Amino acid sequence: MPSKSTDVWVTGIGLMSAAGEGTAAHLAFFDDPGRGPLVDEAGFAPYPVHRMAEIDMTRQIPKKSDLKQMETWQRIGVYAAGLALADAGIAQNPELLSRTHLVVAAGSGERDAAVDAKVLDTIAALGDTQFSAKEILPTALRPTLFLAQLSNLLAGNISIVHNVTASSRTFMGEEMAGLSAVENAVRRISAGQTELVLVGGALNAERKDLLLGYELGRNLWPHPYAPVWNRNDQGGGFIPGSAGAFLVLEARPHAEARGVRAYARIDAVVTDRAERNESGDIRASLSQLFTRIAGNVAPTPIGVLSGASGVQGPTEEEQAFLGDLGARDFTPAVRAFGSRLGHTVEAQFPVGLALAALALGRGRYFASADNDAVEQPLKTPLQRVLVTGVGHWRGEGLALLGPVDGGRIG
Amino acid sequence: MTQNFKDSKGRPIVAVTGMGLVTSLGWGKSASWDELVQGRSGIRMISRFPTEGLRTMFGGAVAHPGQQPDSCPELTFEMARFAAGEALGEAGLAEAKDFPGPLFVATPPAELEWPQRKLLNEHPGGEGLQGYDRLLAAARSGAFKSMFETFQFASVAEHLARALRPRGLPVSVSTACASGATAIQLGVEAIRRGETTTALAIGTDSSLQLEALIRFSLLSALSTRNDRPEAASRPFTKSRDGFVMAEGAAALVLESLESAKARGATCLGYVRGCGEMADDYHRTRSKPDGSAIIGAIRNAILDAGVAPEEIDYVNAHGTSTPENDKMEYLSLKATLGDHLASTPVSSNKSMIGHTLSAAGAIEAVLSFLMIANGVLLPTINYADPDPDIPLDVVPNTARRQNIRTVLSNSFGFGGQNAALVLSAAD
């Protein structure tokens, strides 16, 4: 291990979701626990979905030719990336952009559902006869659609639209994509490999082809809206949410040298994969991860931004782990941001980090609803935020963030 | 005398102690190598699915020696599992219950294919419904959980993690056609940062399914030489007309030299340097001045701490598309200068096609095999050299030549470029 690691600061945030776009909209939304739920229960019934707020994409993606080359999930990601670059004072600065490394958590998509439906009818009419290219061809007739589907083309479009060029890596694997991306970005800065990283992800939840992928494993919540902690009795499940979340992470000396104020410091990001063969595996995995990062931290009440999905097993076990934190004298003030914005899969961990940085940047935590059984007020000043990321199928991760002197907001 | 375990930049030297390979020419390093040194092609007419009506009807399909899997993700896993097994065996780690480091897998994005959609469409759960509503109703029946476990983006890495039991979160990476090189780079960096002494890097790709072939075809990226598939991949020739989709996998056990020596493992070579740079010009084309490709190559050479004149051989990206081969030549000219005239540059893709996410890892393994055997693999089908690309491409037949240091290039759609500098062990 290098004897001295570089502090990693959050110097830019790009956030968009059902709650709107930008840092102020999200602070306002999370300061008002009574607002919402911002959920569409009809459009994808029986599955509720948190739809993206109305946002004029041309503000970050001005060229029509660029917009035409992307499907919605890529537009969301490119837009959020642009917000983060602007927020960090990097946008339009060729010298800084050429030194900015891009790390993206991506799924892919998206299909033309109407065309696919027609193809299915055609194939069904063939009966047992094997289908061939002429049946499938209509799904692929727009060549650019393929590029709009490719996982790494979200990163490709960010490079093209915003000129981020130092390097580009795309991680996949549902929630694990977000964990891998953030972990990779933080490790490279800590080790002095790079000074500037743009990291994040995007999800367009308003797609039946996407819902299908999750529902094959019976992971979706097929009932009217309920917060993630209240879904157990009916078998659990997640409510997908559209979101884009990008962060500019920066080596502290680099940020200080260019005089940019930071929201927060990322003290640690740790990840693992429990086998999940037995009940308790996830809880044990999270507990071990917490032990790895809590070693030098004095036990105090702590803000916990939970990325819990609402899927039964993982969510129950995460709740048990959070209960264990109390026993370790880190009284957790839990906020499951997925209850408010939906589960954003690849983007979930970046969303959690963005919200944690926002709270730390202004030095005050988010309010809790009155009389909430799980989510309690934080009774001490905000010192640290723990972000959890537990995959609905696989993967566990934790991030610990702390304040930077002076803060960013207010 | 004590050996120095650090490179010129004070970082741990990263050795390769085990390698595995699957190509359309065979399962295993020697099965593939024996064909490759004879300049044989693994490109054939596709029999896996009907191709009538398609502009391209051939590819480098990998036939499973046992039961052919039903889907691309399953074959992607099977090939990776085999390559990993071969690599672990060579590294002397086959007996280990858990692989003692992280796993980095370059793998194509998983997606449902039409046979699966058809199966869902036929399920009685969706009766009376149409399109995705019908498929969703079938999914709600709960009868398709194994399909879920196959078609998640995390699936290939997850199944590998179950089999190999690496440390931590298995990492799935995609930088399109540079993915295999990126997986190696991630492993190298983890060792250099001191996070681990060992890492397993795998590139694996099965994408030969009907819709994927149609999509690449519609991008006009593929060769259409249906009359002679084995002659279709012809990098650096005047008549090259596109790449050939192909399947394959490679695995490399990466290990700090110190750790390899301590446990008495054989060092097959070193990964000396990794470089990358992203292009912001176009989704499928590189900047006309080649600056992003040039930057990636330069960064790799700088990272390795070698002089351009030390590069003995270039394992080209060499896809056989009009665009790539021209740009790659210009970029090599810019980075190697006059040294290029005396540097052989060959493309394995002339024989095994373009293995997409796997290519960077496969080409790294083949580079180390060339170093070990003192043989340069040829660029076959080099019948009509492109006069604008004056390269020594090791035309048509393998050549006996000892080399120590190799530059291996990988460039992806979406502008993600990576290059590796690989060398013989001391």
Which fold name is given in CATH as the topology of the largest domain in chain B?
Peroxisomal Thiolase, Chain A, domain 1
Shape of chain A: globular
Which structural class do you get from the secondary structure elements of chain B?
A: alpha/beta
What's the CATH H-level homologous superfamily of the largest domain in chain B?
Answer: Thiolase/Chalcone synthase
**Most residues in contact: chain pair:** A-B, 84 and 78 residues
Corresponding CATH architecture of the largest domain in chain A: 3-Layer(aba) Sandwich
Descriptive notes:
The complex is a heterodimer of chains A (410) and B (426). In chain A, 36% of the residues lie in helices and 18% in strands. Chain A is α/β, with parallel strands linked by helices and 410 residues long. Chain A folds into 2 domains: 8-114 and 142-257, Peroxisomal Thiolase, Chain A, domain 1 (3-Layer(aba) Sandwich); 267-402, 3-Layer(aba) Sandwich (Peroxisomal Thiolase, Chain A, domain 1). In chain A, strands 1, 2, 3, 4, 5, 6, 7, 8, 9, 10 and 11 form an 11-stranded mixed sheet that branches. Chain B is built from 13 helices and 15 strands. The radius of gyration of chain B is 21 Å and the shape is globular. Chain B has helices at 29-36, 72-90, 114-121, 131-140, 145-151, 155-164, 179-192, 210-218, 257-262, 291-304, 322-336, 349-352, 359-373, and strands at residues 14-23, 26-27, 44-45, 58-59, 103-106, 171-174, 198-205, 248-256, 269-278, 313-315, 345-346, 375-376, 399-400, 405-412, 416-423. In chain B, helix 2 packs parallel to helix 6 (155-164), helix 7 (179-192) crosses helix 13 (359-373) and helix 10 packs across helix 11 (322-336). In chain B, the strands form 3 sheets. In chain B, strands 1, 2, 5, 6, 7, 8, 9, 10, 11, 14 and 15 form an 11-stranded mixed sheet that branches. Strand 4 of chain A pairs antiparallel with strand 6 (171-174) of chain B.
